[in-house]
From TrEMBL:
Key words of the record: Cytoplasm, GTP-binding, Hydrolase, Nucleotide-binding, Ribonucleoprotein, RNA-binding, Signal recognition particle
Catalytic activity: GTP + H2O = GDP + phosphate + H(+)
Subcellular location: Cytoplasm
Originating gene: ffh
Organism of derivation: Funiculus sociatus GB2-A5
Domain SRP54-type proteins GTP-binding stretches: 268-281
E.C. number(s) listed in UniProt: 3.6.5.4
Name of the protein: Signal recognition particle protein
Subunit structure, as described in the record: Part of the signal recognition particle protein translocation system, which is composed of SRP and FtsY.
Shown residues in whole-protein numbering: 1 to 295 of 483
């Protein structure tokens, strides 16, 4: 577990041997190593600063535990703080008392939003939850086709009204259809742009206001590291998210975006995408991610 950081901390402490307890000077050396590890792990700079300040306060207040090496004690403080900031445990997806549960998917184009919509449907099926997918991205005909194709592949119905209808109206009718069909969960795929765009945000806000979803999930590409923080801030301020899906964790990213998303929005990562296939979706576990981020 996070061997790289553990090694670095050990060497930082070696220069201070003889001081075998946590002290002001070795805390600063150790914090520098943690800061470096987090930045290499793709965590946003501001998020790192806040995190380090919290760890510093905890380390300074820590009681010396006899028989425990200070570097090990320190690393435990860092690890525990990471896990705590990311929410301790997995937070499952909402399940409405009165179906259908309405899930709104939000995010930029190319992050894996449409794929995640299908992945989520397959995941819910394994929990005996039926789904209806709704295609509202009228700006790219290929996006509707992609969702229809994925729906066929996993044998889940897709509601669409082509590219001439209004996205808000498609979402509204999609939810009505899910109710009429007695479907457990309706997942609404929305239009993404390459960058944050006010028209896109306004449309998402309108869809949200109209269908009143139980979940608004922001899809975040783990490979975007630092940028994930700005993205989360904007979506959370303008739309209000209830959670996130972190995609492309099968890539070589250390996943620091997970810490940024959680610290900035206060909302949990609920799932991670670990591949292009529809099966490649897993619940998010803060402890596993903490180890990965620390490297
Ligand atoms: P959208 O524009 O946000 O709807 O993105 P898509 O769902 O079309 O996905 C964009 C690309 O990312 C596609 O090539 C997907 O196969 C790929 N993709 C999506 N999720 C993952 C993932 O978890 N891992 C990997 N490696 N690729 C993914």
């Amino acid at each position: 577990m996070f061997d790289a950081l553990a090694e670095r901390l050990e060497s930082a402490w070696k220069t201070l041997r003889g001081q075998d307890k946590i002290s002001q000077s070795n805390i600063q050396d150790a914090l520098r190593e943690v800061r470096r590890a987090l930045l290499e792990g793709d965590v946003n700079l501001q998020v790192v600063k806040n995190f380090i300040a919290d760890v510093e306060a905890k380390a300074q207040g820590a009681e010396v535990i006899s028989g425990v090496r200070p570097d090990q004690q320190f690393i435990k403080i860092v690890y525990d703080e990471l896990v705590q900031v990311m929410g301790e445990t997995n937070v499952p997806i909402a399940s409405a008392d009165k179906p259908p549960t309405i899930v709104l998917m939000a995010g930029l184009q190319g992050t894996g939003k449409t794929t995640a919509t299908a992945k989520l449907a397959l995941y819910l099926r394994k929990q005996n939850r039926s789904t209806l997918l709704v295609a509202t991205d009228i700006y790219r005909p290929a996006a509707i086709d992609q969702l229809v194709t994925l729906g066929k592949q996993i044998d889940v119905p897709v509601f669409e009204l082509g590219t001439d209808a209004n996205p808000v109206e498609i979402a509204r009718q999609g939810v009505a259809q899910a109710k009429a069909d007695g479907v457990d969960t309706v997942i609404i795929d929305t239009a993404g742009r390459l960058q944050i765009d006010q028209d896109m945000m306004a449309e998402l806000a309108k869809i949200k206001q109209t269908v009143q979803p139980h979940e608004t999930l922001l899809v975040v590409d783990a490979m975007t590291g630092q940028e994930a923080a700005n993205l989360t801030r904007t979506f959370h301020e303008q739309i209000g998210i209830t959670g996130a899906i972190l995609t492309k964790l099968d890539g070589d990213s250390r996943g620091g975006a997970a810490l940024s998303v959680r610290q900035i929005s206060g909302q949990p990562i609920k799932f991670v995408g670990v591949g292009e296939k529809v099966e490649a979706l897993q619940p998010f576990y803060p402890d596993r991610m903490a180890s990965r981020i620390l490297g």
